[in-house]
Design a protein that fits this description.
Low-confidence stretches: 118-127, 274-278
Oligomer: single chain
Number of helices: 12
Mean pLDDT: 83
Distance between the termini: 36 Å
Radius of gyration: 22 Å
Structural class: alpha/beta
CATH class of the largest domain: Alpha Beta
Strand order of the largest sheet: 1-4-7-6-5
Number of domains: 3
Helix content: 25-40%
Largest sheet: 5 strands, mixed
Length: about 290
């Protein structure tokens, strides 16, 4: 929800006499939380489509919930929703579900953490190694160690005493979330002429791709280029569709999870490529 809200705030600032002026052309949002109700209502159909819910349970949930799963309105609906096994990794349904790991900050413990969390390490090239973790969250532990290293902080220009411990997701910030949907924000930005790229990792059940496509349909945009594959290195990297004279482009990233670039960095780099001579999404198999 942050991206369209911040974009609209910049646009409003540009319309005032405040400085500086930002030459804003558009925005990009990946697996974006957009409408809490729409996002959550798409989870059960997504899990069923991926073969993680039986036909019988899915049909019973549809019948009792009326396809509105985010706020069960009766006991049968609530029972159906609760019966769905949640012991899967919602960020990427194919990866193992791991507990949140707490990491030490001091460098003296870094080697112990690595040896405990590393599944294997194999040489990839003469000057490089690929570290394979049993769980993706293990790499987040090392990230915390790295980001809190005094040498790293000094290199980044973080002055001592100005910033406390770095956290990947700081959930201790005290604020009230009162924006439940930003669908209208997206529509306002497009009416103002801003271009948007919205993309989804297609194995994310936190913000399923079908939920993102559902709120895009609410924008009632005409289709410029219909559903088609896009390619990286001659292979299908996902599927894409363009709307309203290319003011909005939607794409899936095949095999990616909630933070798509974390799972498929090369493919996401192709989406974000600023090179004017290269298509943002190549729809030709080279």
């Amino acid at each position: 929800m942050i991206v369209p809200t911040l974009t609209l705030a910049i646009d409003e600032s540009n319309g005032s006499e405040e400085k500086p002026f930002f030459n804003l052309k558009g925005y990009i949002a990946g697996n974006p939380v957009t409408d809490y109700k729409i996002d959550e209502d798409g989870r059960i159909p997504f899990l069923h489509g991926m073969g993680l819910i039986s036909d019988e349970l899915y049909e019973h949930a549809k019948e009792t919930c009326g396809e509105k799963y985010s706020a069960p309105s009766n006991a049968q609906c609530a029972h159906s929703v609760q019966a769905i096994n949640d012991d899967i990794n919602r960020g990427h349904i194919l990866e193992p579900l791991c507990e949140e790991l707490q990491s030490p900050i001091h460098n003296t413990a870094a080697r112990d953490v690595m040896s405990r969390l590393m599944l294997e390490s194999r040489p990839a090239a003469a000057d490089d190694d690929i570290i394979i973790f049993e769980c993706r969250k293990a790499s987040h532990v090392l990230l915390k160690i790295w980001a809190n290293d005094e040498t790293v902080r000094e290199s980044l220009g973080v002055q001592k005493g100005t910033v406390g411990e770095w956290k990947r997701c700081n959930r201790d910030i005290d604020y009230n979330s009162d924006v439940r949907s930003t669908v209208e924000y997206h529509l306002t930005l497009m009416r103002k002429g801003y271009r948007a790229i919205i993309y989804s990792g297609d194995h994310d059940s936190r913000v399923p791709s079908i939920s993102t496509q559902a709120w895009i349909r609410l924008l009632n945009l005409s289709i410029a280029d219909d559903w088609r594959p896009w390619y990286v290195d001659g292979q299908v990297a996902g599927f894409t569709r363009s709307f309203a004279s290319n003011n909005l482009t939607y794409a899936t990233v095949k095999g990616a999870g909630h933070t798509a670039a974390e799972y498929k960095p090369k493919e996401c780099q192709e989406i974000l490529c600023p090179c004017p001579q290269q298509q943002v999404l190549s729809t030709r198999r080279e």
